[in-house]
Every structure is written in C-alpha cells, then in structure tokens.
Amino acid sequence: xxxxxxxxxxxxxxxxxxxxxxxxxxxxxxxxxxxxxxxxxxxxxxxxxxxxxxxxxxxxxxxxxxxxxxxxxxxxxxxxxxxxxxxxxxxxxxxxxxxxxxxxxxxxxxxxxxxxxxxxxxxxxxxxxxxxxxxxxxxxxxxxxxxxxxxxxxxxxxxxxxxxxxxxxxxxxxxxxxxxxxxxxxxxxxxxxxxxxxx
Amino acid sequence: xxxxxxxxxxxxxxxxxxxxxxxxxxxxxxxxxxxxxxxxxxxxxxxxxxxxxxxxxxxxxxxxxxxxxxxxxxxxxxxxxxxxxxxxxxxxxxxxxxxxxxxxxxxxxxxxxxxxxxxxxxxxxxxxxxxxxxxxxxxxxxxxxxxxxxxxxxxxxxxxxxxxxxxxxxxxxxxxxxxxxxxxxxxxxxxxxxxxxxx
DNA sequence: TCGCCAATCTTTACGTTGTCTAGATAGGCT
DNA sequence: AGCCTATCTAGACAACGTAAAGATTGGCGA
Lengths: 199, 199
Prior knowledge:
By secondary structure, chain A is mainly α. Helices cover 67% and strands 0% of the residues of chain A. The first copy, chain A, has helices at residues 11-26, 33-40, 46-51, 54-74, 80-97, 99-105, 116-132, 142-163, 168-172, 180-193.
C-alpha cells in the first residue's frame, strides 16, 4: 500500500467534494479543473476523465446542490398554512449557507443544460416547489401559474440580490443589529398584504 | 492617412461597443480582453491600457448598462398609479433586450465593486427604484423597506429565472402562443392581491 | 518652426488554463 | 495465470490574462 496509489478508488466523489471545498473557500472563478485535481491530489487531467470538461464538473456540482435543496424543502414538516413561509425561509437559508453553489445552480451558461442528472434534479426541485404551493394539477390555470411564479420569483430575487451585495444599502437603513432575515420577513409580510399600490 | 493609424483616437469607446457586440453575439464567456481587441482591430494588449484588466472592462460595461436602465426608468411618463407597473415592465424589457449585459450587471464576482463609475451608476439606479415606489424619506420604516425590497425582488427574480431558462416548463403549461410577458402580467396580478396564502 | 514630452498603442514574454493524445497501472473476470 | 478494461498519469498545444519594454504621434512650450 503506497502513499498515493495509482488508482484512487473513489476519485469521482473525491473530486466533487474537492470542487465544493474550492467553491466555498475561493469562489466560483477559482474553481478550475486543475484546481480540483490539485485539491484532490491527482494529476491535472484526471477530472477530465470523470467529467469530460469543466462544464461537466460544474453541472454535477449544480445537480448535487439542487438535490440538497430539494431534500431540505421536502423535510419541512410544518402545517400547510405555515409551510409556504418555512419553505421560503429554507430557500433563503440554503442560498446563504452555500452562496457560490447557489449562484452556480442558476448560471446556465456554465452548465450543460441537457445533462440528464441536472434535468432530473431540476424537475425534482420544481415538483417540491409546486407541492409547497399546494398545486398538483396537471394543467394549472393562468392565475395559479402567476401565483407559483410570483412566490418563487420574490424569494429567488431576494436571495440573488442579497448574494450580489445589492441589498447592503437597504440593510444600512435598518435598525442596528438587523439581519438580512429581518428584511426578508418584512418583505414577506408586505407580499402577503399585496405588493403593489401600497406605498 | 493610413488604413490603420497607430493611434486610434477613440479606442476606449470603440472597445466598449466592441465588447457589447461580443456580449450580445457570443455571450459573456466569450467576452475576453483579446476578443474585444480583435473585434476593434487593435493589438491584444490595447484593452489593458484603457481598462487595466478584464474586470475593469466588464465593470465599465456594467456601469453603462446601469445608466441605460436608469434612463429608461426615468423616461416613464405614466400616472403615479400606473408607474409601478410600467417600471416593472421596463425592467423586464431591459433584461430581455440585453440578456447577457443584464446578467453581467448582477454578477458581482466579475466586477470591481469599488469602481467609482459603477458605484455612481448603481446609486443612480437605486434612486430611480425608490422614486418609482414613491419613497423619498431619508429614513424609511421597516414596512417601507420590505415593500420596496419585495417589488424589486419579484421583478428581478422573474427576470433572472426567465433568462436562466428556468421558467420554460411553466411557460409550456400556458395557452399556446403565450409570451413570457403574459406570465409576468399574471404574476403581477397575483402580487397585487397578495402573494401568500392564496392557493 | 523646432524639439521634447506624455499619452497611446504594439510587441514580446511568461504563467495558467482547458483539452486532446498516448501511455502507464491494476482490479477483476475467465 | 493471463488478459481486458476502467482508471489515472504525462506530455503537448492553443488561448487567455497580464506585465514589461519599445514604438509612434499629437500637442505644447520655447
């Protein structure tokens, strides 16, 4: 048994965790095929064998993130009327806990959109979303579609704006010690009453 | 007068328009310093002189996009009660007309966040946003902050999800011939009534 | 009008990356 | 025991960002 055996044995998984380590520590721009290989302690071309190319690796990472998000949404055990709120909070919590991964999950120009594993993870997350909103119809009405879309868009938009640092000026106008979650709750309360024409 | 004079004369602006051409034609990943130089017909290191590095060029592009968006929001001449709707539509229209540029504008890891021109363009756009929502207070209340954030987030989130292709399954469930704008209108109508607890 | 200066652009060079190719290794099946 | 195939390494090449040094020229002062 050598220090570094020629065959790793579980290199594919090791590369995925190495890639996520880099993603969390150094950001998306630092996540390269060669960096993942260095982090895993293998040759620079090893990731190419398992993932084909860089979009292939990023796609598997994104699919992994989507599956984790779906699981966290599925594990919500609230009552139906509280479930929507808790799902929104879980969505934001995931984005805050995995900022770079979350942004990668919604950066389609770096992903292989036709990848089966990504497509499967996407539809799974989509079903969780519709289920949370209490819509199981095969052919929903236009109002239902607008309702589902609105709930997703407002939560997703908040997460995106927050991760991009665009809400910092707004957060600066809040009482000292306020967290982004406080602004999030205020936004949800506003959305419950009606978001337009309120002032 | 030679075919290609040594000094371009207005190379900085030419590089910016060349960069936007590439952005629109080939996407963000194809926009490199050398590609912009090729498009403008100058040496590959010329952009480095005017913009320092690649984030410098992208930052100027993003600032340009923000200024254009601000101008389009400012040009809205609707009545106060219709202004919110028209601003939302203008926001989406800008994102649809300039997809790659819009995504670049909200991709802070590729931009120089401390750039004065970017900061100025940002605060200008921010003021247009607050003005559209009818809030001019120096110290807004928490409810007002939640209200402004919600309006921004739902429109921004819709644009992001749409540009990322995430709404295509939802659009597939709509009547044939429906446009993304139709779903957008349905979402706004839903947001007006109240976005949570409707079902 | 002459000459110099500084802004502008080119050339050259180096390290890093993605990706392709050929080769090395070894686990497992017959 | 031997081979087959999956797995990993080594090497190479083009494209990229970026730095340094050189070339060009418009314009300003004497």
